[in-house]
Design brief:
Strand content: 15-25%
Number of strands: 7
Strand order of the largest sheet: 2-4-5-7-6
Number of helices: 6
Largest sheet: 5 strands, mixed
Shape: globular
Distance between the termini: 40 Å
Order of helices and strands: HHEHEEHEEHHEE
Helix content: 40-55%
Structural class: alpha+beta
Oligomer: single chain
Length: about 230
């Protein structure tokens, strides 16, 4: 594994403990007014998302051990679970999230845990970089002989160098994304690594008014049984 990436994993491991403490401290507050309670809830939410990303980073090292088994996975329940978790965040930030299932096949060859993280990171990226009062779209559909899960945002244009990295199939390391302030590209880096492990194709489509990130997974032969 790249030395720079390895350093990121070490830093991530060191961050997990203080993030967990921050979450517990926020939960310990009581007898607050509505405004303070809202701030506490946001502190808990932010710390939980940060912990989730740290956990994803630690999984990168474990990919080399091949412990994440591939199996038939039902797409819709995974997407529903991710959207339920993130819907509050979209609403709080005045974003809308639309979900559309048009695929006839419900099962793909994947690892459920890694697939969840791929969809989660794509949606979190879309939420951050869409403007207020705009929408993001999660679409699942047949694409040739595969299933494509795509997340469309209406934010700033994706830089050509990041687009090329995604079209190649993975991002070598987290990178800053110009025109998308505050982004390290960490979520996209994680999603591309997990997708590659699952033998899934990943990429991006640049639009005049935003970007679509997608992952294409092989259909499970067990789908015919259902």
């Amino acid at each position: 594994m790249d030395v720079e990436v390895d350093s990121i994993l070490v830093a991530a491991h060191e961050l997990k403990a203080p993030l967990a403490v921050l979450r517990q401290l926020a939960l310990s507050f009581d007898e607050m007014d509505d405004k303070s309670e809202h701030i506490r809830d946001e502190m808990v939410s932010v710390s939980e998302r940060a912990i989730k990303q740290v956990n994803d980073l630690t999984k990168l090292r474990r990919l080399e051990d091949g412990i994440f088994e591939m199996e038939p996975v039902a797409i819709r329940p995974v997407c529903d679970e991710v959207t339920r978790e993130l819907m509050y965040l979209f609403r709080f930030n005045k974003r809308d999230l639309y979900v559309k299932y048009s695929s006839r096949v419900g099962l793909v060859v994947a690892n459920r845990e890694l697939l969840y993280s791929v969809i989660y990171n794509f949606l979190l990226n879309a939420m951050h970089y869409s403007g207020e009062e705009t929408k993001s779209e999660l679409i699942v559909r047949d694409y040739h002989d595969k299933i494509r899960i795509s997340v469309r945002d209406y934010g700033p244009a994706l830089p050509i160098d990041v687009w090329r990295e995604m079209q190649r199939g993975w991002i070598k390391k987290p990178m800053s994304i110009s025109m998308r302030p505050g982004s390290s590209g960490l979520g996209l880096f994680i999603a591309s690594k997990f997708s590659r492990y699952m033998h899934a194709d990943v990429g991006a489509v640049r639009h005049r008014d935003g970007t679509s990130f997608y992952v294409e997974l092989n259909k499970s032969k067990q789908a015919s049984l259902f």
